[in-house]
Amino acid sequence: MSTAEMSMADMTSLAAIRVAEPVVRVRNLGKVYGPFDEGSLARTGPGVGTARDSRTGSIVAAWNVNFDVAAGEALGIVGESGSGKSTVLRCIAGDQAATTGDVRFQCHDDGASNILDLDPATRRRLRVDKVSVVYQDAAEGLALGVTAGGNIADPLTAAGWRNFGRIRERAAELLARTEVPLDRMDDIVRNFSGGMRQRVQIARALANNPPILLLDEPTTGLDASVAAGVLDLIRRLLEELDLAVVVVSHDFAVIEMLTQRCIVMQHGRVVEDALTDQLLEDPQHPYSQKLVAAARA
Amino acid sequence: MTSIAELTGPPQATPFALLDEESKREIRRALLQAVATPGYQVPFGSREMPVARGWGSGGLQISLAIVGRHDVVKVIDQGDDEGVNAVNLRRLISSSTNTEETTEVNEATIVQSRHRIPEDAMEEDHILVLQVPVPEPLRGVERDMKELARMHAEADYSKMWVSLYEDKVRNGVITQTTGYPCLVAGRYVTATTPIPRWDIPRLHQSEFLTLFGAGREKRVYAIPPHTDVEPLTFDDVPFEVESADGASCRLCGSNESFLVESPGDTPTWACSDTAFCRRRRTK
Q1: Residue B212's beta-bridge partner residues?
Q2: Is B39 assigned a catalytic role?
Q3: In what order do the strands lie in the sheet with A244-249?
Q4: pTM of the model
């Protein structure tokens, strides 16, 4: 391990990111686009100021990411665009293949197996009722040409629901919970506003009561008042449901409102992990200080 | 090399059943795999036929690949033995093989059909060959071939269920009529195209072998005898076959067969299966 790597490992001391009974446990998660060697790591990261390896052209999008999430709590991943936060989320969700790492879900195999090693079909099945994702772009999480009810019927039928009446009931219940007017249940999602689409996405994500929820910039791109409403909804749902949640956002307002702990990423590395309150009051890493200062300005 | 004289001269003797032996073997190998994996679409090297693709070339290739000297062939188009296409295909098969033709199910060994299963019971010594325009049941919900292959491989059919859900929400009923999607042997969702819903219950645990051929799409698939064929439907939305309330055939009076409507000022109904209808009248 290079000296840069050593200092990185020291920095992610895991003090604030380990919990007793994790529902999600992430260790040494790494994602590199393109070929890489040991030298790639020394040539990238916050110390060098880039995620791009100048020699190979590879992008070290995320490296040595560690955290736990327990039931009933939310962990934030914060950082600027290109810092690797969404990559981490997508590697956990299974949208992208991680280069290296060890990710365990308590709900799969009692945490005995690394889900990164599972075959694609098994991983996709985890998405039915174990882990759900809410994307920034609703088009990624929803079929826009399908009704709101139909979008919720999708995970339900994937989980084996075959009763039309009960699917309708469940969809209506979820839409009520996410404050989508019931008379819009049979409208196609393409005709929905941005905020309403996010609510439908959340309803769909909760369809099979998954223990793990991943939120990727859930309110980015919404206008301020709509974003506040969606954020408020997410916070109430997190209070009511015993979910393990990971929230990716560049917006400290979102992180502050939803999470108890968070990690700060820059150029593909974790530069700080802390309790959210602590981070906002007293950021340690220069990059965190810059981010917090910018958010407070 | 073929000379111009050979190409422009009188045609050489056509092989038995039109296709060369290697082609027939290739089709039979695909059919064997199809029978071994009920409902799975097996690719095959669809040949140029003397009929245009989309006019039964898939069914024709299957019939030609399996027909033997002692077979008796019946061909129907929409239940009609006398349809132009049915007559042409039947003549093509019989003239290239010197086999017998028939319009009676109980005399036939191979029944090639477009859109119908004959009303008369088919037994274990019958093979039903269906001409298929669109073999992919998921075509309407997914266009990416790679994704379609994945969905079948993982039996991931939730998109199909969503489309049934949407259909029911929009129209109050599941409107799909012909080509109703069915789960075959509990594994593959399969297009029963192009038969009407009426005929679907007769594929379930049938006595006979059904072979499906799609010439344009280059796929064959099969439903072997004694195989479960379950139309996809919700538990609380029963699968229903077509019915015309109180209607009966204007020719034979049947109200137990699949009837088609003849348009007019006062619409009338007649059996779709003409051989069945004719026999009832001559009894």
Answers
A1: B130, B221
A2: yes
A3: A131-134, A212-216, A244-249, A73-78, A261-266, A269-275
A4: 0.89
Q: Mind telling me how many Å the CA of B256 is from chain A's nearest CA? A: 30
Among B186, B249, B253, B264, which one carries the catalytic annotation? B249
Q: Residue A212 corresponds to which tokens in the numbers above?
A: 């793990």
Answer whether the bond into residue B194 is a cis peptide, omega within 30°.
Answer: yes
Q: How many CB atoms lie within 10 A of CB A19?
A: 18
> Strand, coil or helix: what is A171?
helix
Going by pLDDT thresholds of 50, 70 and 90, the confidence category of residue A3 is very low
- Could you give the angle at the alpha carbon of B90 between the alpha carbons of B88 and B91, nearest 5°? 65
Strand partners, B128: B111, B210
Q: How many CB atoms lie within 10 A of CB A240?
A: 9
| Out of A155, A164, A186, closest to residue B237 by CB | A164
CA distance A96 to chain B (A): 16
Considering chain A, what percentage of its residues have pLDDT values greater than 90? 84
**Please, how many CA atoms are within 13 Å of residue A143, restricted to the half-sphere of its CB?**
17
Residues 6+ apart with CB under 8 A from A281: none
Average pLDDT, integer, range B183-194: 93
Interval A158-211: pLDDT, tens: 999 999 999 999 999 999 999 999 999 999 999 999 999 999 999 999 999 999
Q: Are B216 and B172 in contact (CB under 8 A)?
A: no
Across the interface, whether the CB atoms of B165 and A149 are under 8 A apart is answered: yes
Q: Please answer yes or no on whether A124 and B235 come within 8 Å at the CB atom.
A: no
Q: What's the whole-number average pLDDT of chain A?
A: 91
Classify residue B80 by burial, with Cβ atoms within 10 Å: 0-12, 13-18, 19+: buried
Q: What is the ipTM of this complex?
A: 0.88
How do strand A73-78 and strand A244-249 relate by DSSP bridges?
Answer: parallel
Interface test with B, best of A118, A146, A182 (most B CBs within 10 A): A146
The span from the CA of B234 to the CA of A86, in Å, is: 38
Phi and psi at residue B62, to the nearest 5°: -65, -50
Cβ distance B236 to A149 less than 8 Å, yes or no, reads no
Separation CA B6–CA B12 (nearest Å): 9
Domains of chain B: 21-134+195-230 (3.40.50.11310), 244-283 (no CATH)
- pLDDT of A293 strictly over 50: yes
Q: What is the pLDDT of residue B43?
A: 97
* Mean pLDDT lowest among A103-107, A204-208, B13-17, B215-219: B13-17
Residue B194 — pLDDT band, cuts 50, 70, 90? Answer: confident
